[in-house]
Amino acid sequence: MRDEVRIEPWSEGDLTLLRLMNAPELMDHLGGPETEDQLLVRHEQYVGMSAGTSGAGTMFRVVTTATGQAVGTIGYWERTRQGEVIYESGWGVLTEHQGRGLAGAALEAVLERAALERRHRFLHAFPSVGNGPSNAVCRKAGFSLLGECDFEYPPGRPMRCNDWRVELTF
Ligand SMILES: CC(C)(COP(=O)(O)OP(=O)(O)OC[C@H]1O[C@@H](n2cnc3c(N)ncnc32)[C@H](O)[C@@H]1OP(=O)(O)O)[C@@H](O)C(=O)NCCC(=O)NCCS
C-alpha cells in the first residue's frame, strides 16, 4: 500500500531539510549540489513563496502522515512558456525514502492545491530526459508527454528535458 503524505508550506525551520536535499545523488539531474550561500538564498525564496497570497506559487515540505517526518520537497510556481504563463512543478524525496510512492502522492496533493488557485489551466514538469524515476512520476500522475525541449537549470546550464503537461481540473 502506498504511504500517505501531506504537504506543508515551506517555513523558516526547513533549512535543514533543504541541506539534506542537496545530497549529490539527489542533485545529479539538477546541476549538482549548491553552495551553502546558494542554499540560503533558495531557502529565503521558498519562505517568501509560501508567505505569498498572489497564487504565483508555493513550496512545500513533504511529510509522511504516519510519522510526521519530512521526507522531501515539492512545489509549483509560474513560468512563461511559449508566451503562455503556466504552472511548473518540481520535486525530490530523500534517498532513504524513495521507491515507496511518496513523490507520486505528494504530486497528487500539489495538483489539488494548484487547481484550487484557479489561475492556470495547465501544470508542466520538465524532468531531464535521463531522469527515469521523475519521468515515471509524471506518467503515473496522468501527465501527457508533449515532447523534448531545451531547458536551462540552473540558469546558464543547458539540459535536455521532457515537457510533461497535465490539465488542472477546476
Ligand atoms: C524523482 C524522485 C522524487 C522520485 O521519488 P520516489 O518517492 O522514489 O517516487 P515514487 O516512488 O512515487 O515513484 C518512482 C517511480 O519511478 C520508477 N523508477 C525508479 N527508477 C526508475 C528508473 N531508473 N527508470 C524508470 N522508472 C524508474 C519506480 O519504479 C516508481 O514507479 P512505480 O511506482 O510504478 O514502481 C526521486 O528519485 C528524487 O528525489 N530524485 C532526485 C531529485 C530529482 O531528480 N527531482 C526531479 C526534478 S523534476
If you had to describe this structure to a student in words, what would you say it looks like?
- The chain is α+β, with helices and mostly antiparallel strands and 170 residues long.
- It has one domain (5-167): Gcn5-related N-acetyltransferase (GNAT) (Aminopeptidase).
- The protein is 27% helix and 34% strand.
- It has 4 helices and 7 strands, in the order βααβββαβαββ.
- The protein has helices at 15-20, 36-51, 102-116, 132-140, and strands at residues 5-9, 57-64, 70-81, 84-93, 122-125, 144-152, 158-167.
- A 7-stranded mixed sheet has the order 1-2-3-4-5-7-6, sandwiched between helices.
- Helix 3 (102-116) links the parallel strand 4 and strand 5 (122-125).
- The longest helix has 16 residues, at 36-51.
- The radius of gyration is 15 Å and the shape is globular.
- The two termini are 28 Å apart.
- The mean pLDDT is 95.
- Residues 26, 29-30, 90-93, 98-104, 125, 127, 131-134, 136-137, 140 line the site of coenzyme A (COA).
Write the layout of secondary structure elements.
Elements: E1 5-9, H1 15-20, H2 36-51, E2 57-64, E3 70-81, E4 84-93, H3 102-116, E5 122-125, H4 132-140, E6 144-152, E7 158-167
Residues 26, 29-30, 90-93, 98-104, 125, 127, 131-134, 136-137, 140 line the site of coenzyme A.
